[in-house]
Write a structure and sequence with these properties.
The structure holds 2 protein chains of 2 kinds. Chain A is mainly α. In chain A, about 60% of the residues lie in helices and about 0% in strands.
């Protein structure tokens, strides 16, 4: 559905041969466009700055967690907002987990750099996708659009600049969905590629919010930051590819509720056991990273 | 809209440092507040400490005492 960083990374990982789930293999021009768009606009406005910082391997792991958590929920924070705007109540449930994940900020961990017939077959025309990605990448770079950052700014500074951008995006999508009759407030809407295992929706997004805070940005923001010169984020993006490969090679990704084409029966989407174990592990790893990087006075 | 003034803006390596700064300045009654890093400094999206120019000495003192390392000190319109 529309735009999802985790899903597009997963498809691209498939196209690169990193996993062999046939339904989800396609080198998404949107991803290329996003990074290129952010790169071009940052060069044009002289904001491009090549930077590299700390904890490369930890960032790689966080990238993996971002995508594994997302694929258990079936969407990155961007898609969560899009699903919310289409009335998918599962996404609203997952939002709770995401916010709780970001709240982990109160720990004051110090890894964050402040400066710094499957989905694969359903896609827009290549050129259109690329241009869409380029424009979206440029807009995201200019606006500093970030799902984790917007919640962080509200918590820490009562600053609503970033949240306004996300809110605006949500309202535009909501109006579009209502106008085109796509707004269906329900839990099990076939075709939305979602599942209703609430606990795992929450925990999946909790892991994503947590990892996003530690890595300093949601999956979308990581791509944009990589485009404007952050090697830290580039490492996180590489981790996201590895996470996508792991999610499908080890059967971690959830399945969406769908209508069986032959029997016309509703088949409920579910999170496989491997996925549940992986999410728990991801959250544990996040806690370990957070506490071992906790800021100690006078270090 | 609020008038922009020349302010001292301290950027940090980590968000945790910025948060520690807020706490330390609160304890020591040093003026200032957390703001998003101004666009003119960086296209990134972190937090920065914004204070009046004349608080510079106080701020450096607090940072030394609490071992908070700045990334850079800027003077810019905020």
């Amino acid at each position: 559905m529309a735009f999802c960083i985790a899903c597009f990374i997963r498809d691209t990982a498939g196209a690169l041969g990193l996993h062999s789930a046939e339904a989800v293999q396609y080198a998404r021009p949107e991803i290329i466009g996003l990074v290129l768009g952010a790169f071009l606009i940052s060069v044009a406005t002289k904001e491009y700055r090549s930077t590299a910082g700390s904890s490369s391997m930890v960032r790689f792991v966080l990238g993996m967690i971002l995508v594994i958590g997302s694929l258990v929920f079936l969407g990155c924070p961007l898609r969560m907002i899009i699903r919310m705007s289409a009335g998918d109540l599962n996404a609203w449930v997952a939002l709770i987990g995401f916010i709780l994940g970001v709240l982990i900020l109160s720990l004051g961990t110090s890894l964050l750099k402040s400066s710094t017939s499957g989905p694969g077959s359903m896609h827009a025309p290549i050129l259109l996708s690329l241009i869409g990605g380029l424009i979206f990448g440029a807009v995201a770079q200019k606006s500093r659009m970030c799902f984790a950052g917007s919640i962080r700014d509200v918590i820490l500074m009562r600053n609503f600049d970033l949240l306004t951008i996300i809110g605006g995006f949500f309202v535009v999508m909501l109006i579009f969905n209502i106008a085109t009759g796509r707004f269906v407030p329900a839990f099990d809407t076939p075709g939305v590629i979602a599942h209703s295992e609430h606990l795992w929706n929450i925990l999946g997004m909790y892991a994503v919010g947590f990892a996003a805070v530690l890595a300093g940005g949601c999956p979308l923001r990581q791509l944009i930051l990589a485009g404007q010169g952050s090697s830290d984020s580039a490492v996180t993006v590489l981790g996201m590819f590895a996470g996508a490969a792991a999610a499908h090679n080890f059967g971690l990704a959830a399945s969406g509720t769908a209508l069986d084409a032959e029997t016309q029966e509703l088949v409920a989407g579910a999170v496989p056991m491997n996925g549940k174990v992986a999410v728990i592990l991801c959250i544990v790893v996040c806690f370990v990273i957070a506490f071992t990087n906790n800021r100690s006075e006078g270090k | 809209m609020r008038k922009k003034e020349l302010k001292l803006v301290v950027t940090f390596h980590t968000t945790a440092d910025a948060m520690a700064m807020e706490q330390a300045c609160g304890e020591k009654k040093v003026p200032g507040r957390l703001i998003p890093v101004p666009r003119s400094i960086s296209a990134g999206c972190g937090l920065a400490w914004c204070a009046p120019l004349d608080a510079r000495e106080n701020i450096l003192e607090v940072m030394k005492e609490k071992a908070i390392e700045e990334e850079a000190l800027h003077e810019c319109m905020v």
